[in-house]
Amino acid sequence: MALKDKVAIVTGGNSGIGKAIALELARQGVRIVIDYVVDPAATDALERQIAELGGKSIGVEADVSKIADLQKLVDAAVSGFSRLDIMVNNAGIETRTSVLDTTEAQYGKVMDVNLKSAFFGTQIAAKQMIKQGDGGRIINITSVHEDWPMPGNTAYCLAKGGMRMLTRTAGLELASHNILVVGVGPGAVATPINLSTMNDPAKLAQLDAAIPLGRMARPEEIASVVGFLAGDGASYLTATTIFADGGIMHSSVGL
């Protein structure tokens, strides 16, 4: 396998899209550092799943809004597996608040977890990859909302828009080091962040009707895109976003 024995960090890695990414990469032979801030039992269970696949992983409790904790993740990859090849900036939160209602605390937390972590995660991972001298991949899990407004979720959209420009600018800056930086922009995905919609039949029906493919994505479908981007088949992709949205960004049906 092309990715066998590569090493990846997945932030927000013990649930939702992050968990699916960790499992997908592990199936391809990648050794995984699983970042988490809550639910250590879920991390332990994921480590067992990866072991059952014949893979290797370590769980690291780290708050990605803190630069020291991002460094801790990279240090864990190097001490546990001797290197770092793939950085997946996946951790994200939202407040579902409008520009009129978002508090300073809400704004700050969304920016710290979604955007600051991606910026400094990219920086710290890139420095390690440059030290190793043989390139690497940085994959930012953004959203259709890096480009598509979502009234009532303003801070989240701002953070994802920032990740769009981080991906493009860092991709250009790091190209000479053979470090590729690509975003993955999911549409609606069946994960815990969307439980309020998934548990409301009327809201779910409205959402499904707005998606040309007629359903939310499964986390595994987003993870498969990440698996492709981490491999040799994506060796000429950088400074751009791949949208996996079921066509919703081009739908004429409003939400």
Describe this structure in words.
GO terms for molecular function: oxidoreductase activity. This is Sugar dehydrogenase. Keywords: Oxidoreductase. Belongs to the short-chain dehydrogenases/reductases (SDR) family. With 255 residues, the protein is α/β, with parallel strands linked by helices. It has a single domain (7-243), classed as 3-Layer(aba) Sandwich (Rossmann fold), CATH 3.40.50.720. The chain is 45% helix and 15% strand. It contains eight helices and seven strands; from the N terminus they run βαβαβαβαβαβαααβ. It has helices at residues 16-27, 40-52, 67-81, 104-132, 154-174, 195-198, 201-210, 219-230, and strands at residues 7-10, 31-36, 57-61, 86-89, 136-141, 179-186, 240-244. A seven-stranded parallel beta sheet has the order 3-2-1-4-5-6-7, sandwiched between helices. α3 (67-81) packs parallel to α4 (104-132) and α4 packs parallel to α5 (154-174). It is globular. The relative contact order is 0.14.
Which SSEs are present, and which pair or pack?
Elements: E1 7-10, H1 16-27, E2 31-36, H2 40-52, E3 57-61, H3 67-81, E4 86-89, H4 104-132, E5 136-141, H5 154-174, E6 179-186, H6 195-198, H7 201-210, H8 219-230, E7 240-244
Parallel strand pairs: 1-2, 1-4, 2-3, 4-5, 5-6, 6-7
